[in-house]
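In this supplementary section we document a worked example of the pipeline. Step one takes a protein sequence of length 373 as its only input; no multiple sequence alignment statistics are reported here. Step two produces a three-dimensional model, which step three serialises into structure tokens for compact storage. The input and output of this example are shown verbatim.
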Amino acid sequence: MSSVRCKRLLSLLTVGVLLAVLTVAAPLPSASAKSVAEYQSALEAAKANANAVKAKIAALKKQNAPYEEQLAALQAQVDAVQKEIDLHEEQIRQCRATVQERTEQLASSKENLKRRLVAIYTAGNSKLSILLSAEDYGDYLAKSELSASVSRHDSEMITAILDAIAELELAQEQLKASEDEILVKKAELVAAYAEVNKTVSAYNKQVNALNKDLAAIQKEEADIQAAIKRAQTSAATTSGGKTGTGQFIWPLPGCYKISSGFGARWGRQHTGVDIISASEGVLGKPIVAADSGTVILSKYYSGYGNCIMIDHGNGYVTLYGHMRYLSSYGVGASVTKGATIGYVGATGNVTGPHLHFEIRKNGTATNPLNYYN
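The serialised model returned by step three reads:
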């Protein structure tokens, strides 16, 4: 992988970290200065930030996957070459032992040859001396043939010694060349591994930083939810707000068809149910409070469109989204169970008119259908 490509990827990862740092949620406001509605808004913002960080982590993982695969493949190659090196080093060790043994044998052969040459020179191995020392012609022929045989043996010994020297030198050269080739191959693989590992290490650093941000945001969510619970209790006891019964009535009388249920939808969590009419148009149908309580949010609220949230003072909060108009009930108003709080519309992120209805218990969205027979 080229250094330019690696630098570009590292630049992208660095930008990802900067974005993650910039999107970390703001510190939790003072508990005494915020209403339940403001805390609820802060909670939604924290959840949005958490989702953004999760998306960045997922994107980084997807972006880094090919490099992790490449790193694993390179590591496998390095391991294979290392095994080859280990095997080759064992062969070299054995060959060196053989070379040492042959060298010692060669030295011994040279010593024997030297002694033979000295003996031949001292004995004066000429045909005349052989003839003079022979007892008869037959003895002369025998001694002459023996002398020739010894000379041939000496010649063969010299040739064998020279061949052994040449063989050892060639073996040593081949071993050295093979060893150098394998070491170069390993060095190239280790360099490639190190380059890819820089990218993977940078990725791991970014993901670790994002995970720390995510943990901080999740702690903030828990703190906000605790503050909401305290604020709900305070609102129910000090502001004259109504407390719910814990028994919910259906928020859209006469309309009971669920067009989209609670749970996973389009790759994310659908935190409520979408209610429409089974036989007639639902636009403009009156929406009623599922239980008594105090309004904690009443405004155009992001994808919910015109929205109202009611705190029932017992840990439950209900949400009614996509209303046609803003509710006539403002924040802080007391609402009686069954009171009309708005009308079905198609505001916010919708594909058609319907009521998006949520029931949250202690700040956590639950399936509204669990509360109805």
